[in-house]
Specification:
Layout: H1 2-28, H2 35-46, H3 65-82, H4 94-110, H5 113-126, H6 131-143, H7 148-161, H8 166-198, H9 205-225, H10 232-241, H11 250-273, H12 279-287
Helix pairs in contact: 4-5, 5-6, 6-7, 7-8, 9-10
Length: 291
């Protein structure tokens, strides 16, 4: 009995020793890496010379705010100086302009007015601020082309550039009364047409059509100045029918309809309240539209 017990104890100790030895061998054996770990190791090994660790805070040179401002200003100056200079507008060659002027005067004396006109225009294009060129061109237009108004404008321009230009001053003294008389005649003609229009009854159908067409043109040109691309016929369709025009933006439609509403508002105030109410009240009502 004692032998059996001793044998069991001995066998248990041997088995335990084998287990301990086997476990110690497993700890010393390196584990196999997974495919992901192997791929990651290869990537890090491939780019080990590409990525560098950041330096410590003590080794980073940080410039002060004032120094950094100076650096930025210097960089901006360098960028501005590196830009190519803007192209300077080429000045007219006065010598070439005077040569063209002399050739034009010769052609004028020879009676070749068409060639002289082109030479004068060429001289003015080369030297648009030369008083002599402007004065001679004005004399040519006055005496040859019978264009006193344009000649007077050229004389006035020459005097504005050179007030002591005697010949331009003499020419202006001659043409100024003629231009004033022409202006008075044209203004009188306009007044006569206005008076003739005023004698037409307001119920006349032709007058109503003319006023309506003038209204359409006024709206068309007013919005066109601001960049509206509607044609006159499209503007007329919008004002008469209120229908939208295909291919045009809502902003352009709103500009036409808004101006139409504003003109109708002003017309109603002027026609109905000008004599019954104080003008100041009407202006106050108008100011409410913008508040």
């Amino acid at each position: 009995m004692n032998r059996v017990t001793f044998f069991v104890i001995f066998l248990s100790g041997a088995v335990f020793a084998l287990l301990v030895s086997h476990l110690s061998n497993l700890r010393k054996t390196p584990q196999h890496k997974t495919s992901v770990q192997v791929f990651r190791a290869e990537i890090l090994n491939q780019y080990k010379d590409t990525f560098f660790p950041l330096p410590s805070a003590g080794t980073i040179d940080v410039e002060e705010e004032s120094t950094l401002g100076v650096v930025i200003k210097n960089l901006q100056k360098a960028q501005k100086s590196s830009k190519p200079p803007k192209p300077i507008e080429r000045k007219a060659n006065n010598q070439e302009a005077l040569a063209s002027l002399h050739a034009a005067l010769e052609k004028r004396l020879q009676g070749h007015h068409d060639k002289a006109l082109k030479l004068f225009q060429h001289a003015v294009a080369l030297a648009p601020t030369h008083p002599d060129v402007l004065n001679h061109y004005g004399e040519f237009l006055e005496h040859t082309q019978k264009d006193v108004v344009e000649a007077d404008r050229l004389y006035l321009r020459a005097l504005s550039l050179s007030p002591s230009h005697n010949r331009a001053m003499t020419n202006r003294q001659r043409t100024s009364p003629v231009v004033d008389a022409l202006d008075k005649e044209n203004l009188k003609r306009i007044d006569d047409k206005r008076n003739t229009l005023g004698r037409i009854p307001s119920a006349d159908s032709s007058l109503r059509r003319a006023k309506r067409e003038a209204y359409f043109q006024h709206v068309y040109h007013s919005v066109g100045i601001e960049g509206n691309t509607m044609s006159l016929s499209q503007t007329r369709v919008i004002l008469e029918t209120g229908m939208a025009v295909g291919g045009k933006s809502l902003i352009e439609h709103g500009e036409i309809l808004g101006l139409d509403a504003a003109l109708k508002y002003l017309n109603s105030k002027l026609s109905s309240n000008l004599f019954s109410r104080n003008i100041k009240w009407g202006l106050e009502d108008l100011s409410k539209l913008f508040h």
